[in-house]
Write a structure and sequence with these properties.
Blueprint: E1 2-11, E2 14-23, H1 27-52, H2 60-65, E3 76-79, E4 94-97, H3 101-115, E5 123-124, E6 127-128, H4 131-152, E7 158-163, E8 166-171, E9 179-185, E10 188-198, E11 201-207, E12 224-229, H5 232-245, H6 247-255, H7 258-263, E13 265-269, E14 275-278, E15 289-290
Parallel strand pairs: 10-15
Antiparallel strand pairs: 1-2, 2-7, 3-4, 5-6, 7-8, 8-11, 9-10, 11-12, 12-13, 13-14
Helix pairs in contact: 1-4, 4-5, 5-6
């Protein structure tokens, strides 16, 4: 029997859910471990919010909007920090990281703008706004840093971290566990349009039902786009791009990108409520699944 433990974190004005899955013999250990790891994830998410929130005057994004881009040139010192895990640095070491989170996101949004033919634009209403990629990136980073070590050391069979329609998942190679992720109906938050089966991968959803017209759009033929990819950073980027570019242009952009063609799958909801699946290279009539 599979046991799933879950905890909720409130950050970036939304709830994030941490989930660990294991067998019945791991139940007690899962409770202890999830209670230990959740505060670390919460601290990390609050740090990301403090860095990137355009609504905080003291954030680096707000500073950039005022013309202060010094964060692009800074380095940051890490000491005895769980973030070191992803950098391959032993705990307790003090060192200079080659860049800040701000600089990494800046590079990512420039890459995203190029990959999406300008439809993913870090400028919104004339101001720098990288939030279209920050949440997905932060979830993926936190999952890699805090949850993957639990899978790799056998503490749990599977782990997931999600928030605001975005989720990153992973499953141990020796486990047959599968995550089942529902695609919410934008017209009815209690209804599910599709169920995505996922082992190692990510799902991101973008649309206008909750936050209104927060994305600069050149077409308005999609109400919601849910994208499945290996990495949540890119799933988030592509979901935002689909809403910005519109369905037909988005299909054309993906057709010109071999990596996106091989990795990406999507569920589109049109303004009239109709739903279509987009699975490049696989046909649109197959059930959505992703088992990398």
């Amino acid at each position: 029997m599979t046991v799933i433990q879950a905890r909720v974190i409130h950050a970036m004005t939304i709830p994030f859910t941490v989930q660990l899955a294991g067998n019945a013999q791991q139940a007690v250990q899962l409770t202890t471990v999830i209670d230990e790891v959740t505060p670390s994830i919460a601290d990390y998410l609050h740090h990301i919010e403090a860095t990137f929130s355009p609504f905080r005057a003291d954030s680096q994004v707000s500073a950039a909007r005022r013309g202060d881009w010094s964060a692009l040139l800074s380095t940051q010192t890490a000491h005895n920090n769980a973030h070191d895990v992803s950098q391959g640095v032993s705990r307790g070491a003090s060192h200079q990281l080659p860049h800040t989170d701000f600089a990494e996101i800046y590079a990512l949004v420039q890459q995203a703008k190029e990959l999406t033919h300008g439809h993913f634009d870090p400028m919104h209403a004339g101001q720098y706004d990288p939030t279209g990629i920050v949440k997905g990136w932060a979830i993926e980073q936190a999952h890699q840093r805090f949850l993957m070590p639990l899978i790799n050391t056998g503490v749990c069979e599977a782990a997931a971290l999600g928030g605001g329609g975005d989720i990153q998942t992973a499953v141990a190679s020796n486990s047959d566990f599968t995550w089942h992720i529902g695609v919410q109906d934008p017209a009815n938050p209690n209804a599910t349009l599709r169920t995505i089966t996922l082992r190692n991968g990510a799902v991101a959803t973008s649309g206008t039902s909750k936050r209104g017209e927060h994305i600069t759009r050149s077409a308005h033929d999609l109400a919601q786009a849910t994208v499945v990819d290996d990495h949540l950073t890119f799933a988030d980027m592509w979901a935002t791009t689909a809403i910005s570019a519109g369905e037909q242009t988005f299909r054309g952009i993906v057709a010109s990108n071999p990596v996106a063609q091989s990795n990406l799958m999507a569920v589109f909801v049109r303004p009239d409520g109709s739903v279509t699946q987009f699975m490049p290279g696989s046909g649109d009539d197959k059930p959505l699944s992703h088992t990398h």
